[in-house]
Write a structure and sequence with these properties.
Layout: H1 4-16, H2 23-29, H3 33-38, H4 48-69, H5 75-85, H6 88-97, H7 108-112, H8 119-137, H9 139-160, H10 166-178, E1 183-192, E2 195-204, E3 207-214, H11 217-231
């Protein structure tokens, strides 16, 4: 009869969509340092080295995927998208979808303090699993695992981020050309309380470049920046 731990590892591998040739790598990926500190067995190692490896591999694979699939994105947009995908926040979301917390080996103190649901621990564990898959099956298998796991999420996220940030674009221009940043001033606020209309002008070096109107100050600023970029033939 197989042990409960063996059954849990089989269950997790099914969720991951990857079967390990060397299951001990997966066991190590799930072992938190607090468990090792409290364990009497000397040959048990935590997942920190695997996490270090997985972090680098994840960054490379995501960069490669974005470069090949988001051809119209600028370097800045690619960097912004990548930064979120490899962030603790995003990786913890993926980890919770896989229910990684259930499979962790934690010390008693970490267990009591809710370690199975901590974003930092879950994100680190996901990176450790990537490191383990790389050592077990190589780069191609690791790439397939990562892309399969989050491809659709990345595409949806990328489409949301495709909306241009005209204020950032205008700021980059102003800093490069004039060594300053644009200022946005409210010209007027009209309309009813429940549906106001804001008119905002953008100023660079005391010169009014354009105005924009919208139902919120943020959107009016974006509109003004958009008009200013058109005026200086940046769009």
């Amino acid at each position: 009869m197989q042990s409960d731990e063996t059954e849990k590892l089989k269950d997790l591998q099914f969720k991951l969509g990857y079967i390990f040739f060397n299951p001990s790598l997966l066991k190590k990926a799930l072992t938190h340092s607090t468990f090792v500190n409290e364990c009497q067995e000397k040959d048990i190692r935590d997942n920190e080295r695997l996490e270090f490896l997985g972090d680098s591999i994840l960054g490379f694979i995501i960069s490669d995927f974005l470069h090949q699939n988001f051809l119209t994105y600028s370097e800045g947009m690619l960097s912004k998208l990548k930064a979120y995908i490899v962030s603790e926040e995003y990786l913890s979301i993926i980890s919770k979808e896989l229910d990684l917390g259930t499979y962790l080996k934690l010390g008693k103190g970490e267990e009591v303090s809710g370690g199975r649901n901590k974003s930092s621990i879950l994100a680190n564990t996901y990176e450790a699993i990537i490191g383990a898959i790389y050592l077990d099956g190589g780069l191609a298998m690791t790439k397939r695992f990562i892309v399969k796991d989050i491809k659709n999420k990345i595409i949806k996220l990328g489409k949301k981020m495709l909306v241009p940030d005209y204020k950032s674009m205008l700021q980059e221009y102003a800093q490069k050309e004039f060594g300053t940043i644009p200022k946005y001033e409210l010209v007027s606020e009209t309309g009813e309380n429940h549906s106001p209309i804001f008119e905002i002008q953008v100023i660079i070096q005391d010169k009014i470049y354009a105005t924009g109107t919208a139902g919120s100050k943020k959107k009016a600023e974006q509109t003004a920046a958009n008009q200013a970029l058109k005026k200086i033939n940046m769009l």
